């Protein structure tokens, strides 16, 4: 039988149930959706009441506001229409608030909160519209349009506003007993403590518990306010980054006494995610830091008593995270303690002394509308869509956090709060230096009346043991130097990959062609086939020379054994390093010049010079390219003044911040200002130790035109 005709799509009866159950994460999220609706209605407040009857067999949830209410037409033509675009079109409420709801689905969150819903709304013309819904009707109906809902409207003397009354079952009483603290926390995090001026509007949230909790005697009414712990941070960075990438941050260390607010100018280029307002607060988690946090005045909101260490840790565990807010309201789950969208914990594992973990930070990032920022919420209300704008938001937020991390690292090191960096070779020398022990033993033996010959004999035994141990130390130092050299070689693997990719691709693509023309030539020798073969072999020869040249430049850096100390020419050693990077320098239009004395001879280890200058050149290339410097150049000047000499190394990159120079932290292992995943923080530390092995010192100097290093004998 053949059938044809036109038909209409008819949503199933449980369509609305699906909206609530599948698109609203949980019951706390459902409450938050209803709170946002009250905000959109220009209400000055919202009251969320949980009422349990005396027999404790029924729970009633009431969400009530005092906004402009809904007319009969609003209810029938908007509230009753799933996925309406009304708020998208209006964008702002009558009093100018930016609309929180945009998807037209939040209102149906009520169906996961209870079995039925009574909606009562009074508009500004004193008309009261009422409707009652039993959600089971939608489950039973085959099609959505089969469900009939009675809607009533009449005049009233009541003030404008909307009241939702939701009846739930006895099982929900026990569930809300467990979930009420989570809801309280979600409501506290819903609006950040410092809302941008343009997003501010008089709006209060009240939570009322009427016989909900077991053994509850009185009705509990509380205004939901931010947690007081937010004022007791150790470190804080805050500020605005405009859409052009320019801005100014403010950093404060509340852990140190008498510290001043530091201004940090920022210029990042177009954000591609609109204007951002950022507020990040960090808390140290050691026992002493927790105690200091409590001493600043951290108390329990209910009892007014100071919190204990464990309670403070638990509070931080429940609040931590970087939240993203639009128009003053948080976008879940960004900011949940178990949703590390910035991968802070992953970075901390790789660099624990420098990076902060998600359990140490409470932060707020305010974003603009979807139209201005490109940051779009997912339909399921479970975060932001993964697009370019979201990637840029993560990148910029991590950059700003890194500015706090740098300053925190310096402070903690100077204050003795972090494990000091170990200079490997100096520590090894201390380990088997018996001179102090030898002196003490000699003094004790003399006081005991032992003869001088006997004391001298004991001294010789100690000296002999020290010499044996020092020989072992030298072997260890040699091994360390080899490992550091290999680590430096690892830094130029990208050079090998970049320069070797083209000839490798040529070999891969042309060898099958060579085989083909070889067989063809064997079957019928023609000049055309011979010319094809010669062209391919000529290309193979040309590309093979690329490898020969590349490996020739890298070979001096790849010594498997540690050479003995010897005399070598400084200019030639530095020149070898410049050859390693010659293609990368050319590709990025960077001019590298070595000037000054070309005959200066140094007695030491040639590989260490490779280590020092490989790291310096590699850093310069990265920063000049990353900062898009208008002029890109590196000048290495060898100055020989007869009795003394030094090498000046300068580039035209963004330079090094003064506070990092003054603290010397740039030579600390694990410290890096490079973006996530682009640096290990070992390069300058290795270069510094390589210099010390040769009786030299590598220092960084202040320079307004780029980075400036100086290498000279101690």
What attributes does this structure have?
714 residues, alpha+beta, Heat Shock Protein 90, Ribosomal Protein S5, domain 2, 4 domains, 21 helices
- Round the Cα radius of gyration to an integer and report it: 36 Å
CATH superfamily of the largest domain: Histidine kinase-like ATPase, C-terminal domain
Strand tally: 22
Whole-number mean pLDDT = 80
CATH topology of the largest domain: Heat Shock Protein 90
Number of helices: 21
Major β-sheet annotation: 8 strands, mixed
Strand order of the largest sheet: 5-4-3-6-2-1-7-8
Reported CATH architecture of the largest domain: 2-Layer Sandwich
Name of the CATH class of the largest domain: Alpha Beta
The shape is extended
Strand content: 15-25%
Describe this structure in words.
The chain is 41% helix and 19% strand. It has 21 helices and 22 strands. β3 (116-122) and β4 form a beta hairpin. α12 (424-431) runs antiparallel to α14. Residues 196-200 have low confidence and may be disordered.
Question: What order do the helices and strands come in, and which of them pair?
Answer:
Blueprint: H1 15-23, H2 27-40, E1 45-52, E2 59-65, H3 72-79, H4 86-90, E3 116-122, E4 127-134, H5 136-140, E5 151-155, E6 161-168, H6 170-190, E7 204-210, E8 220-223, E9 235-241, E10 246-253, E11 262-267, E12 276-282, H7 287-295, H8 309-319, E13 321-326, E14 329-330, H9 344-350, E15 361-367, H10 370-373, H11 388-414, H12 424-431, H13 435-447, H14 452-491, H15 493-523, H16 527-554, E16 566-569, H17 570-580, H18 582-587, E17 591-596, E18 601-604, H19 606-626, E19 633-640, E20 645-651, H20 658-663, H21 683-693, E21 696-701, E22 708-713
Parallel strand pairs: 1-7, 13-15, 17-19
Antiparallel strand pairs: 1-2, 2-6, 3-4, 3-6, 4-5, 7-8, 9-10, 9-12, 10-11, 12-15, 13-14, 16-18, 19-20, 20-22, 21-22
């Amino acid at each position: 039988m053949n059938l044809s005709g036109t038909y209409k799509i008819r949503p199933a009866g449980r369509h609305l149930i699906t909206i609530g159950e599948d698109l609203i994460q949980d019951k706390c999220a459902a409450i938050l959706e209803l709170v946002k609706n009250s905000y959109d209605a220009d209400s000055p407040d919202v009251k969320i009441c949980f009422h349990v009857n005396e027999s404790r067999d029924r729970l009633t949830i009431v969400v009530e506001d005092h906004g402009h209410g809904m007319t009969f037409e609003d209810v029938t033509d908007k509230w009753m229409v799933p996925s309406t675009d009304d708020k998208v079109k209006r964008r702002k409420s009558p009093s100018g608030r930016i609309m929180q709801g945009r998807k037209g689905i939040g209102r149906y969150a009520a169906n996961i909160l209870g079995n039925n819903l009574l909606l009562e709304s009074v508009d500004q013309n004193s008309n009261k519209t009422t409707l009652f819904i039993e959600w089971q009707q939608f489950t039973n109906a085959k099609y959505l349009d089969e469900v009939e809902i009675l809607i009533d409207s009449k005049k009233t003397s009541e003030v404008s506003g909307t009241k939702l009354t939701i009846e739930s079952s006895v099982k929900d009483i026990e569930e809300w007993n467990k979930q009420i603290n989570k809801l309280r926390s979600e409501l506290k995090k819903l609006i950040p403590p410092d809302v941008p001026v343009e997003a501010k509007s008089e709006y209060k949230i009240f939570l009322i518990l009427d016989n909900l909790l077991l053994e509850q005697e009185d009705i509990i009414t509380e205004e939901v306010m931010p947690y007081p712990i937010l004022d007791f941070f150790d470190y804080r960075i805050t500020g605005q980054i405009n859409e052009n990438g320019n801005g100014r941050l403010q950093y404060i260390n509340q852990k140190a006494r008498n510290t001043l607010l530091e201004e940090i100018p920022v210029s990042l280029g177009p954000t591609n995610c609109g204007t951002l307002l950022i507020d990040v607060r960090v808390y140290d988690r050691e026992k002493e830091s927790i105690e200091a946090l409590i001493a600043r005045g951290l108390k329990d909101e209910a009892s007014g008593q100071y919190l204990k260490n464990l309670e403070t840790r638990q509070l931080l565990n429940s609040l931590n995270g970087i939240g993203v807010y639009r128009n003053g309201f948080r976008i879940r789950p960004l900011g949940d303690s178990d949703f590390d969208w910035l991968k802070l914990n992953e970075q901390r594992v790789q660099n624990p002394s420098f990076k902060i973990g998600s359990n140490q930070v409470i932060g707020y990032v305010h974003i603009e509308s979807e139209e201005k920022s490109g940051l779009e919420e997912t339909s399921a209300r479970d975060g932001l869509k993964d697009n370019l704008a979201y990637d840029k938001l993560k990148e910029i937020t991590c950059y700003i956090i890194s500015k706090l991390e740098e300053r925190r690292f310096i402070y903690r090191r100077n204050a003795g709060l972090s494990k000091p960096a170990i200079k490997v070779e100096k520590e090894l020398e201390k380990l088997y230096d018996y001179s102090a022990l030898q002196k003490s033993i000699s003094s004790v033996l003399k006081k005991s009346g032992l003869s001088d010959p006997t004391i001298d004999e004991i001294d010789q035994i100690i000296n002999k043991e020290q010499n044996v141990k020092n020989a072992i130390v030298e072997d260890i130092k040699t091994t360390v130097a080899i490992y550091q050299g290999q680590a430096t070689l690892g830094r130029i693997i990208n050079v090998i990959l970049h320069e070797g990719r083209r000839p490798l691709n040529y070999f891969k693509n042309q060898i099958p062609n060579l085989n083909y023309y070889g067989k063809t030539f064997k079957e019928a020798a023609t000049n055309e086939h011979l010319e094809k073969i010669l062209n391919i072999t000529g290309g193979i020869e040309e590309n093979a020379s690329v490898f020969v040249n590349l490996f020739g430049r890298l070979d001096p850096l790849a010594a498997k054994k540690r050479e003995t100390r010897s005399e070598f020419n400084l200019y030639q050693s530095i020149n070898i390093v410049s050859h390693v990077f010659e293609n990368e320098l050319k590709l990025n239009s960077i001019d590298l010049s070595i000037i000054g004395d070309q005959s200066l001879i140094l007695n030491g280890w040639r590989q260490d010079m490779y280590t020092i200058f490989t790291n310096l050149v590699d850093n310069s290339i990265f920063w000049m390219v990353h900062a898009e410097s208008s002029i890109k150049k590196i000048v290495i000047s060898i100055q020989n003044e007869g009795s003394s000499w030094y090498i000046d190394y300068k580039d035209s990159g963004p330079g090094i911040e003064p506070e990092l120079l003054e603290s010397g932290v740039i030579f600390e292992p694990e410290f890096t200002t490079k973006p996530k995943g682009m640096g290990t923080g070992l390069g300058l530390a290795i270069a510094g130790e390589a210099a010390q092995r040769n009786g030299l010192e590598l220092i960084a100097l202040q320079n307004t035109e780029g980075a400036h290093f100086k290498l000279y004998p101690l």
